[in-house]
Amino acid sequence: MSEINWKPVKSSSTPLYLQIVNFIRNKIMSGEWTIGTKLPSQRQLATSFEVNRSTVITALQELIAEGLLEAKAGSRTIVANNTWNVLAASSPNWPEYVQAGIHQPNKSLIQQINKAEAEPAILRLGTGELGSELIPADAMQQILTSLQHEPLSLGYEEPKGNMQLRETLSGYLRNKGIYASPSSILIVSGGLQALQLIAWGLLRKGSVILHEAPSYLNSLSMFESVGIRGVGIPLDRHGLQMESLVRLKRQHDAALLYTIPSFHNPTGAVMSEERRKQLTEIAHRETLPLIEDDVYGDLWFEDAPPPPLKADDRGGNVLYLGSVSKALSPGLRIGWLVGPEQVIDRLADIKMQTDYGSSSLSQAVVNQWIRSGKYEAHLARLRASLLRRRDLMLDILKHSFSDCCTWNIPDGGFYIWLQLQKGISARKLFQHVLQKGILLNPGTIYDKFDDSHLRLSYAYPSESELIQGMQSLAKMIKEDFRQ
Fold this sequence. Notes:
Layout: H1 16-29, H2 42-49, H3 53-66, E1 69-71, E2 77-79, H4 94-100, H5 108-117, E3 123-124, H6 137-146, H7 163-174, E4 185-188, H8 191-202, E5 208-213, H9 222-225, E6 229-236, E7 239-240, H10 245-252, E8 256-259, H11 273-285, E9 290-293, E10 318-323, E11 335-338, H12 341-354, H13 360-372, H14 374-400, E12 405-407, E13 415-420, H15 426-435, E14 438-439, E15 441-442, E16 453-457, H16 463-481
Helix pairs in contact: 1-3, 2-3, 7-13, 8-12, 14-16
């Protein structure tokens, strides 16, 4: 059941319990709460309604007496009927349909984070996107204005995406050492859709994917939903550790490897040039396709990372993923996938079946950003801003966290991978500070066995929020979690 945003009016002449009765009755009679729906616990309802638990109990007892609710032994109260005289069998059992859906739900922890991110009062220290201060809203308005003088199509684009944008990206990628014709580029609605299309279009049910552990991949449910399993390979500050790669590939007959070599999410690590060469050699020898997720690749601070794996790809072994979501605007929902033409043709066909193409307006906007040179200028300013925020977070860590945590120093991207002192549970800390209005990303999102790390982001909070949130976090760790 989704969150309840209604509360009884305490100044009303209608008793509180009766207001609650009317609210629940209306939810049931309107079909919003269908037969079989489980209500939150009495304690949760009391918290949502901001009333005493006894008031909730009185309301539920009246609805049970009316036959609308039923109290199941050992479980929560459920909706039992939706009229005074129609049997439950006359209405679809929507909860059963919900449970039967092919696509698996997010992990409960991720659902909790997604819900908290929608709360304006929450201070978000782990969110992996640019904060409003770093999104170039004024320049975006100028780009939109300039498009008034351009021939603009607002119809459906061709399956692979807007040709002008793909031509622009072909030139943009050459600066990275990637030579890709427009026909080998697919425009996608963000990097997440590219992974989804790969799962649907290229992998068999029962396939195994190798990935870094920890990895962003662990928070994506669509691979599991189509019967695909992930196997993690450890990484260090130089990136993926190669020692176990061949063994695990052969042991699991792995279908491909997914990697984030530049400014890894969540650790911030950069795969060294030597290991990139090792990886491409192993992948070629073992016939192991690679998905290279390079959405953070432009966000370096002082020195650019080594060339992408795709730049050294001569056999079409690498599927290369880029996006403007991390560097420009997540709301545009524009990314790109580069690969062999037969792969791009296949995935373009699937994309047309699912959404009939990414937004034509967003594609025109991104094309104008890159083609005009404004994107490169924006990146220069953004790197300086992110570096300043990284240094601010590092300074706070040095002065307030040195006796309870260790951390990496990223050379780009969004994240600091914070390791908590032994005995401090990241998941328990997450729940504790969330009650105090601070949202963190615990390590278990990225590796189910990791309860000792936090992913901290200096990209989303403003500098004042960063200071406030980090100082409050340090205080809570020392006062409530130190042994």
